[in-house]
């Protein structure tokens, strides 16, 4: 189902018939550059986060109930989302960071600059 003509949509329980369009949906990260037999193979034990590399970015996921600090050896571009959905002024921008604080149950998209 995840081909070039496919899309995934966030559905909120009280507005099931609404198509939400977030600015990060337009981000092209390319195919994954590695495969894992299990999710645990993507776990960074120092930060307790999961990392997945793609052709032009990395996705870092914090599935746990606690915030996690992630330090980078060099500055990275971090995708920052503002304002929610595009129809209500939502947008995204890349900012340079040497570290990020991942909230619980959240993720970040980063790339080298």
Structural summary, described in words:
The protein has strands spanning 43-44, 49-53, 58-62, 68-82, 91-102, 106-112. It is globular, with a radius of gyration of 15 Å. The protein contains no helices and six strands. The termini are far apart. Helix content is 0%, strand content 41%. The protein is mostly beta strands and 113 residues long. The protein has a six-stranded antiparallel sheet, with no helix packed on it.
Task: Please tag this protein with its features.
six-stranded antiparallel sheet, mainly beta, 41% strand, 113 residues
Secondary structure: elements and pairs:
Elements: E1 43-44, E2 49-53, E3 58-62, E4 68-82, E5 91-102, E6 106-112
Antiparallel strand pairs: 1-2, 2-3, 3-6, 4-5, 4-6
Number of strands: 6
The DSSP helix count reads 0
pLDDT under 50 segments (min length 5)? none
What's the average pLDDT?
Answer: 85
Identify the strand order in the major beta sheet: 1-2-3-6-4-5
Distance between the termini: 32 Å
Query: Helix content range of the residues, please?
Result: under 10%
Shape, principal axes of CA atoms: globular
Largest sheet: 6 strands, antiparallel
Radius of gyration (CA) equals 15 Å
| Class by SSE composition | mainly beta
Strand content: 35-45%
Question: What is the H/E order?
Answer: EEEEEE
Give a brief rundown of this model.
The protein is mostly beta strands. The chain is built from no helices and six strands. The protein has a six-stranded antiparallel beta sheet with strand order 1-2-3-6-4-5, with no helix packed on it.
């Amino acid at each position: 189902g995840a081909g070039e003509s496919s899309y995934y949509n966030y559905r909120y329980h009280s507005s099931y018939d609404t198509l939400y369009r977030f600015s990060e949906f337009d981000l092209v990260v390319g195919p994954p550059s590695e495969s894992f037999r299990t999710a645990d193979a993507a776990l960074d034990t120092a930060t307790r986060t999961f990392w997945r590399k793609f052709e032009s970015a990395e996705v870092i996921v914090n599935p746990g109930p606690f915030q996690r600090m992630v330090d980078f050896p060099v500055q990275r571009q971090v995708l920052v989302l503002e304002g929610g959905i595009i129809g209500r002024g939502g947008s995204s921008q890349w900012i340079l960071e040497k570290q990020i604080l991942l909230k619980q149950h959240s993720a970040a998209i980063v790339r080298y600059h």
